[in-house]
Amino acid sequence: MEVLKETKGVVHDSTEFGLREDNLAKTLHGTTDHGFTPLYVSEDDDFKSCDARADFLIDALEALYWSTNSTHRDPAYFPEPEKFDPRRFEGNGPAPYTFVPFGGGPRMCPGKEYARLEILVFMHNLVKRFKFDKLIQDEKIVVNPLPIPDKGLPVRLHPHKASAMS
After folding, report:
1. What is the CA angle 35-41-144, rounded to 5?
2. Over the range 31-58, which residues count as b (16 or more CB within 10 Å of their CB) and which as e?
3. Chain segment 58-110, per-residue pLDDT in tens
4. Among 36-40, 69-73, 117-121, the least confident range
5. Where in the sequence is the signal peptide annotated (predicted)?
6. Contacts of 109 (CB under 8 A, 6+ apart)
7. Phi/psi at 116 (nearest 5 deg)?
8. CA atoms of 150 and 18, how far apart (whole Å)
């Protein structure tokens, strides 16, 4: 916390480059998936799907897997989920537990704030020093099983002029 106080005038929520904390959520929306941690069912249960697409029996001690990507790309929560739309995170943002790049509730990833700070510092330094040109403008995102750019997202970096650094 001391570091945050010392850098308050240097690194703050809004900069001339548009690097803001809420931009992290906008960026993470289509790209996060923290793996496939199983949930074990303690007793047999008849599962009724909330949208009536599936009804089935889940046996006790059966492992269930859920991918955050299945929620992050659900049109019921995010209209046009494949489209990059930062406005969906403005105001109150998405409904609780529909966007969970670090999990949620009492078992949320303890590294969330550390990761957030690391991303902010890293991106601040990149944006401060370089201009970016995407080499493939409409690159596809492939999900297998995690979302990644099809061609690796090649970019060209151009250093800012020395006068822009001060």
Report:
1. 25
2. ebbeeeeeeeeeeeeeeeeeeeeeeeee
3. 777 777 777 777 788 888 888 888 888 888 888 888 888 888 888 888 888 88
4. 36-40
5. none
6. 34, 102, 103, 115
7. -60, -45
8. 27
Residues 6+ apart with CB under 8 A from 131: 157, 158, 159, 160
- Residue among 91, 73, 98 nearest 83 (CA): 73
At 131 the three-state DSSP class reads strand
Contact 72, 81 (CB under 8 A): yes
The DSSP 8-state label assigned to residue 76 in this structure reads: T
- Nearby residues of 8 by Cβ (< 8 Å), 6 or more positions away: none
Decide if 108 contacts 102 (C-beta within 8 A).
yes
Domains of the chain: 2-165 (1.10.630.10)
